[in-house]
Amino acid sequence: MTFNNLLDRIKQSGQSWSQYDLDMAKNNLAFGNAIFSAKNDWAKAHAAGDRAGMDAANAAAENARRTYGSYLGGSEGSQYYGLGGPASYQSPYSEAQSDTLSKMQNYGSFTFDQKKPAFSNTYGGLLDDTLKKMQNYGSFSYGSAPTYNNRYQEQIDSLLQQVQGYGPFSWSKETDPAYSAYAKQYRREGDRATANALAQAAAATGGQVSTAAMTAAGQAGDYYAGQLADKIPELYENAYQRYLSDYSLLTNKLGQTQQTEQYDYAKYLDQLGQFNTDRALSYDQWLQGYNMLSDQAGHLQNAGALDLQRYQTELEQYNNDRNFAYGQWADDFNRLGAVLDAYRQQDDIGYNRHLDQVGYNTSQDQTAYEREMQAAQLQRQQQEQAAELARAQVDAMLSAGVRPSDSLVAGSGYQGEYVQTMEDYYRQQNAPKASGGGRSSGGSSGSSGGGKPNLTWSQTRKEIEAGNLSPAVLAAYEYYMGEEYRQEEPGQSGTAQSSSRNTATQTGGTTNRVALSKNGQQRIEVEGYGYVDFATLEDLVNQGKVVEKLDPKTGRYTYWRN
Prior knowledge:
Helices cover 64% and strands 5% of the residues. It is mostly helical. It folds into four domains: 3-84, no CATH class; 124-142 and 151-354, no CATH class; 384-431 and 439-487, no CATH class; 492-562, no CATH class. Strands 3-4-5 form a three-stranded antiparallel β-sheet. A hairpin with a 4-residue loop joins strand 6 and strand 7 (556-561). It is elongated, with a radius of gyration of 68 Å. The chain starts with a helix and ends with a strand. Mean pLDDT is 77; it is low at 433-450, 488-511 and 516-520.
């Protein structure tokens, strides 16, 4: 922002500036902004009737004048009260300081033209290729080992089952086919011999069969039956020998089959041994190839390390050269700073001599300034006293049922809405009371209408504590508290009555006050939170922000900020 921009803002805002302030702002825009802001704050406070805000704004403006120009502007800011100081001192070194400071400000950043060495690995490509080969070398692999296939396993298993299940020897003539053949033969021969014996006996006796013939025929049949019986041991022995022979043949066949399988297994072992030998040789070759790659990578890394050492040496020298150049650059800048300090020291010497020679009579200016401020304060006190007198007159007239004049109301500082409210209030107070009941206390009057009183709640309490129970003070109390003011009885603390939590007021303790809002909603005063409704109060208690204490003797609650 330029000074012309500031002038435009002053014109648009309608502010009034002294020539002293304008001259100072022309040379220092920070001062101009401070004065503009202070005057703007003063105008807002004046429009709101905020005397304290007006005084604060004027103090801010005076502080800016004192800081930047060593002078004061008085209560209206239009005067000039010099306080002495460097405002009137003209330095002979200002131009030299400006030039030196300009050189320092435009000194520029440090630059270094020497090219920074770059690292170049001569063997980087070869090393990368070798490492890539190592990474992609793959794992060792070899063909599958030979497997053994037992061609005779089924035969061996079958023969073993036959040997294991061969069982003990057993023989029966009924099941021996040889015995059956001998039995047929001997029975046939026996029958033939018996028939022949009977025929010969019948021929000798003339066809009659005698007892002797029968005996002879029976003997002939028994002979052959005996021959058959004699064959049984022979047949048993023959069957047993066949049993042994068959078992021997079976075991011999099993042994031959197993021996043949052992020949096959021995061949498999020879093949497996050769496989292991060939695989070991192949693995040694594979590992040797990888180790050769690893050795090559190691050699390439060593060669690259030599390149890195050379690069580090060149980089170190580059950094040394750059640091040396930066040191020169910084030394030159510091020399400019030393020259500027020397000029400033000479300025200090010249300024002190100036003070000794000039010797401003600040006491007279300060005395004049203080007199003006005292006069302004006296004027404000007189205005306030006049306003208080006017307010007292307005209150008295309103309480007597007389409407004050507009000029008197204007002098009191009361708002027309407040005057109308108080007029309605006193009209209600002076009206005849209805039969069967008097004026209700505790809450309806505070919401009966009207504007906000001129007194704040803090001012109202101070007036009551000072013993001022004028109608205006009582009306303000009723507005804020929602009930009429009742003087304390002996033993009471405060103006509010405590009640059970279960009652409509829902308050406890003698430090909590109850009021009614304009919509008739009950509120309770809690330190740090003002008047809050009971739903909000409950939330504050649940959140731990407000402490709730029950008196078991009275059943009453007290609330305070946690």
